[in-house]
Prior knowledge:
Layout: E1 12-14, H1 26-40, E2 44-48, H2 55-70, H3 73-76, E3 89-91, E4 97-98, E5 101-102, E6 106-110, H4 122-127, H5 148-174, H6 182-186, E7 203-211, E8 216-217, E9 220-221, E10 228-233, E11 239-244, E12 250-253, E13 259-261, E14 268-273, H7 275-280, E15 290-293, E16 302-310, H8 327-337, H9 359-370, H10 372-378, H11 380-384
Helix pairs in contact: 1-5, 2-5
This protein binds 2-oxoglutaric acid and fe (ii) ion.
Fe (ii) ion (FE2) binds near residues 235 and 290.
Protein name: Clavaminate synthase-like protein
InterPro entries: DIOX_N, IPNS-like_FE2OG_OXY, IPNS-like_sf, Iron_ascorbate_oxido_reductase, Oxoglu/Fe-dep_dioxygenase_dom
GO molecular function, one term: metal ion binding
Amino acid sequence: xxxTLAALSEYHIDFSLWQPHSPDSPSSQQFVAAIRRAxxxxxxxxxxxxxxSDPTRRAKMFDLVHRFFALPIETRKQIDMAKSRxxxxxxxxxxxxxxxxxxxxxxxxxxxxxxxxxxxxxxxxTKFPYLNLLGPNQFLxxxxxxxxxxxxxxxxxxxxxxxxxxxTALEAAxxxxxxxxxxxLDGEGGGVVDVCGQGALPYARMKTIRYPVGDIxxxxxxxxxxxxxxxxxxxxxxxxxxxxxxxAGLEVQDFDGNWLPVEYIEGAIVFNFGQQVEYVTRGLFxxxxxxxxxxxxxxxxxxxxxxxxxxxLNVKMEPLEEAEIDGEVRNxxxxxxxxxxxxxxxxxxxxxxxxxxxxxxxxxxxxxxxxKQVAEAWYPDxxxx
Length: 385
Ligand SMILES: O=C(O)CCC(=O)C(=O)O
Ligand SMILES: [Fe+2]
């Protein structure tokens, strides 16, 4: 029988146990202990009862996603990503790559926007190229796609708050001081590189994704025999909150290199770490390797909504001191691994920061690498280097 993530009890966590105003209550502590165990293992788990699994919110979001992808390609291309120097908008089938190989999916990308954190000064953009990642989203008008901006914005806000709560619980799970991890998200407590006196520039991304079936999608031929929905990767940021549809395809790689299907479970979303958490926890909390397999003979289209927390763009990442971390975390880790190396299809630390660089540079490289069309249209100098 195939091993699945759903069958492993330690990878099911109930978010309703967490009481934000009473982090020391027995219920919150039960939550923290469960997080510690799951995070010290695969770091890829089902999160039950979070605001993102609220049935009304989820139904609205998936209805929006279905309506968007049912629009004619000309209408979808009104918000073509190539029009946005901020890497926002619709990215057509086959236009995105993972490890230089085409992904058999299309998607709409979103990010945060505020007028006060929007930079146009060419000198500043040359000095801090990651500032190009800040800017407006592309939304279709309500007459064309009712609720587009409102539904996405609500999802973004709920995800942001859920991520803050989870990050606070992670601090408790690691036994580090309160705010020790949140500072990477909001810059409170140092490490911020000054950009026009703006303070930290918090960041996150979101994608609504389709993995279509058939040999030809929007007039584009599927690469013969390719089953790469999205290739094996570790998310590059902080943490990911993923809401999949009922259709199968997502898989996570365990530490022996086996791929475990991650089935859809009603009322749950899927949580995983990005490489920046792996970096700051010195590998105690791993960014799990995962992929989506899009079978050539699949009968049903898979949809998903992925929200990615990133560290603030202008914050420098610094690993926690060994001595700060509760010894129990290392004990769980070493007793589970017993000295064995992790088998993994992705090069270790491919998105770790270089020394002394702020997170934005990692994010910037990730986007240039994944979205060639935008890079060629807007940043030919950056890719010719
Ligand atoms: O669509 C999915 O289920 C997973 C997507 C994913 O892993 C990603 O976009 O990073
Ligand atoms: Fe991912």
